[in-house]
Amino acid sequence: MFSQDKPLKGAAVVVAASLLTGCGSLVGEGESDEAIVIGTTSTPSVLDPAGAWDGSWELFRNIYQTLTHFPSSSGTPEPDAAQRCGFTDTVSSVYRCVLKKGLTFSNGNPLDAEAVKYSFERTLAIKADTGPAQLLQSIDRIETSGERTIIFHLKRPDATFPLVLATPAASLVDPAVYPADRLLESDKISGSGPYRIEEYKDGEWVELARNEKYNGAAEIKNDAVTVRYFKNSEKMADELKKGSVDLTYRGLTPEQVTDFDKNRTDYPDIKLNEVYGTEIRYLVFNPEHEEAANPAVRRAVAQVVDRKALVRNVYQRTAAPLYSMVPGGITGHVSAFYEEYGEPDVKKARATLAEAGITGKVRLTLWYTTDRYGATTAEEFAELKRQLEASGLFEVTLEGREWREFQKGVTEGDYPVFGRGWFPDFPDADNYISPFVGKENALGTPYEDRVLTGTLLPQSRKESDRGAAGTAFAKAQEILAEDARLLPLWQGKLYIAARDDIAGVEWCIDSSTIMRLWELSRKESW
What we know:
Elements: E1 16-18, E2 29-30, E3 36-40, H1 57-63, E4 68-69, E5 78-79, E6 82-87, E7 94-99, H2 113-126, E8 139-145, E9 149-154, H3 161-164, E10 195-201, E11 205-210, E12 224-229, H4 233-242, E13 247-249, H5 254-262, E14 270-275, E15 280-285, H6 290-293, H7 295-304, H8 307-313, E16 319-321, H9 336-341, H10 346-355, E17 362-369, H11 376-390, E18 394-401, H12 403-411, E19 417-422, H13 452-460, H14 470-483, E20 486-492, E21 494-499, E22 502-503, E23 521-523
Parallel strand pairs: 3-12, 3-13, 17-18, 17-19
Antiparallel strand pairs: 1-14, 2-23, 4-5, 6-7, 7-9, 8-9, 10-11, 11-12, 13-21, 14-21, 15-19, 15-20, 16-20, 22-23
Helix pairs in contact: 7-10, 13-14
Keywords: Signal, Transport
Family: Belongs to the bacterial solute-binding protein 5 family.
Subcellular location: Cell envelope
């Protein structure tokens, strides 16, 4: 039984709604020896969970195990590798988990308390630039008791810690395989998740087979899955139409979504599903660069950008304008940027610049990744350039880079203004603010604020009832809007296109919008 002294409340629930008929579970669903083939543009950057805080988590969720997990349609964690977990004090600072009996990794090595301790301490010690160590920073020390009990002592009260344990940042690895002081360079991984890797071709595909040694909460409904990684959304959609891909996840362009939706008779064997999305896109201003250092410049950009035109002209309304770093549907959301800036207004932007002594055109270079979020990203930045230059206040240069080079530039602080996407680690307002602020954050741009990072966020983490943290989050969003170092643009909807013989689509996305491949199966009869 999963216990927690002060249960989390108010977490968002992900609900999948079929846009076309026939997407639900049908009588006659069953397992098949034929591998289900998934297409996605979310290519792993590494296979070691200590080295990735990005779309690699899509794979990690399926090959590694965590102590807890997010069950279907719920943002409240439940046991996975753990038999039970819970805070043992009244201030959410000591968290205890007891493992299930007889756990092993896919190679047969034991998964015991020491392996769990090793996994967390390793990620914290390696502290990879692109890794998730920041998510684990609340851990002060870890102790074990016997072979199955792990006790986390936190530096300060943190009611979000059970949520963190359900993310791939808390993936469990085999101490005999994963070096303590560096990332694993081999593709011969050893996890304890629902699948094991049969074959991996970097940037192209991964073949997964059921892990017969898995002992967790997932009910695995297929024997094998192949994930194909595409750089080109058009190629991915074409493969789905031809039948060489069974399901596409992440990367469909708005044009492709509209095509599948409106031209149903052209694709009778393909069903389109819309998933409530908590993905966001935003601009980051690095004040270490002259271009982005002046608050007046950042505020003027925030005053000019027309989000409604952006989602209309580029995303064909498959996204929604976003006026906060915390998206709608997440407890604690307020439209802080709309309250601060209102509708786009060039006159106000010009006045803002003039008050700061800026009279000439401001030169800005906007950087973006060309292959991470789908082909529409280039169109998005072209639209941002059009809007900013149409104001007469800015002269904009665009620079696109492939993900790995782009990510390197971000972590090294090379870009004054750049675009990022964020898929939540867990469904809580904290996860849309905390990762981007503080001395060391996910963006490589230190952002310390006495009230924001010194008072509001620590205060919010004391609330085990997450709804009660809303006041602190509202104030935090107001500070972000006034400062405008982060500029939210839009909140996405997630679309899954699947061939009609694939069952389980409505259950395959968890509350952090990561795909659970084990929920998919082929329908054997109708």
